[in-house]
């Protein structure tokens, strides 16, 4: 894990907020009714829903989500035309432990 890459991903207020919202997605987003019943990606929120909450263009939000995913903080799943994101708790915990060691 690249600690600096992760810190940079968290340095943007909107990206940080997205990560916070995804901690309890049921409190911050409407149910993902278009998610197929066969999709086993509990807690996943589509890019469109996240974009709507931020008030930013979907392309901007997609870039933010990819950056958070590359940093190991999110994981994604594609179901048809929809891409869903959720927190990668293992990656977040690994980052926290690494940060404790380095600082």
UniProtKB/TrEMBL annotation:
CDD domains given in the database record: HTH_ARSR
Transcription regulation listed as a keyword: yes
Pfam families noted in UniProt: HTH_5
SUPFAM superfamilies assigned to the protein according to its UniProt record, in alphabetical order: Winged helix' DNA-binding domain
PROSITE patterns listed in its UniProt record: HTH_ARSR_2 (PS50987)
DNA-binding is among the record's keywords: yes
Entry-linked SMART domains: HTH_ARSR
Keywords: DNA-binding, Transcription, Transcription regulation
GO molecular-function terms, A-Z: DNA binding; DNA-binding transcription factor activity
HTH arsR-type domain boundaries: 1-103
InterPro entries: ArsR-like_HTH (IPR011991), HTH_ArsR_DNA-bd_dom (IPR001845), HTH_MetalResp_TranReg (IPR051081), WH-like_DNA-bd_sf (IPR036388), WH_DNA-bd_sf (IPR036390)
PANTHER family: TRANSCRIPTIONAL REGULATOR, ARSR FAMILY, TRANSCRIPTIONAL REPRESSOR SDPR
Protein name per UniProt: ArsR family transcriptional regulator
Organism of derivation: Paenibacillus rhizosphaerae
Lineage, uppermost ranks: Bacteria, Bacillati, Bacillota, Bacilli, Bacillales
């Amino acid at each position: 894990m690249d600690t600096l890459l992760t810190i940079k991903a968290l340095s943007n207020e909107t990206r940080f907020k997205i990560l916070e919202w995804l901690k309890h997605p049921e409190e911050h987003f409407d149910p993902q009714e278009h998610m197929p019943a066969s999709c086993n990606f509990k807690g996943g929120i589509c890019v469109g829903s996240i974009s709507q909450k931020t008030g930013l263009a979907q392309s901007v939000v997609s870039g933010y989500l990819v950056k958070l995913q590359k940093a190991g903080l999110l994981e994604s799943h594609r179901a048809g035309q929809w891409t869903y994101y959720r927190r990668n708790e293992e990656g977040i915990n690994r980052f926290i432990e690494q940060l404790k060691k380095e600082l």
